[in-house]
Amino acid sequence: MPDARAPRLLCVEVHESRPLSFMTETAAQLLTDLGDEAVFVPTTTRTRKQYQRINLPGPQPTYAICTNGGHILVDGEPDRDWHARVLARLADECAPLAEVQEHLLRTADPVWVRKHRVAEDLFAYLVVERELLSEDWVKELAVWAENRGWTVSLQGRKIYAVPKPLTKSAALREVARRTGADLTLAAGDSLLDADLLLAADRGWRPGHGELADADWTAPAVRALPERGVLAGERILRELLRTVRAPR
Fold first, then answer.
1. Among 69, 120, 145, 216, which is most buried by a count of CB atoms within 10 Å?
2. Mean pLDDT calculated for residue range 80-98
């Protein structure tokens, strides 16, 4: 949009002394209102350390879901019993992380790989130069991973290899059980959010991201046209309207 029409932004994440993530000031107030009226649960593929860089407005969330469902935080502290259950399921149902990591290190081309990362000993990802990345390699990796109980997702400059049982939806169901929620609402924009959107009673996805690029939707998921920070604002309005509606 023209510069003169751009909304005022609030920085909600600083990394290495630089502002990194933003929301509109209107969205900040909407999120505060939502936190006062519902159990707001930040849910992310970020590690706990990456999540803790975020400084969201509103009441401090009682629950947060990190590392794609590998950790549930309760009042900021990891729930060890939940994490142990996740580890046991991964050990039973998929190839070990070390095998996947070794395959990534051996087959990825240093020409387009910038970083190799492991997230809390749960999954692995690469930071790549997207314009140099081989699409055939990504397809071959997806087939290789599928046969070992893993899934592959390309998001921006990152390629994720994630165990199939490691899901946000499983953690969502656990938090809903603990809180006695009779209605669950979710929003997300990446392929790793699809299971979360399907597990919720109602969901929203913005006009940007992997899901929008794939024109992905589902019966209980509404596709919104807004992109970027304005999509975040629209999603918060939709969540508040739904929470306040008579049931």
1. 69
2. 97
3-class SS of residue 96: coil
Chain centre to alpha carbon of residue 97: 20
Task: Please say whether the beta carbons of 235 and 208 come within 8 A.
Answer: no
Per-residue buried b or exposed e for 129-153, using 16+ beta carbons within 10 Å of the residue's own CB: eeeebeeeeeeebbebbeeeebbbb
Taking only the tens place, the pLDDT of each residue in 222-247 is 999 999 999 999 999 999 999 999 87
Place of tokens 């071959």: 140
Arithmetic mean of pLDDT, 82-92? 97
Q: Give the three-state DSSP class for 7.
A: coil
pLDDT in tens, 134-164: 989 999 999 999 999 999 988 889 999 999 9
Neighbours of 20 (CB within 10 A): 12
Report how far residue 150's alpha carbon sits from residue 110's, in angstroms, rounded to the nearest whole number. 23
Coil vs helix vs strand at 19: strand
Per DSSP bridges, beta strands 71-74 and 63-66 are antiparallel
pTM over cut 0.85: yes
Q: What is the DSSP letter of 245?
A: S
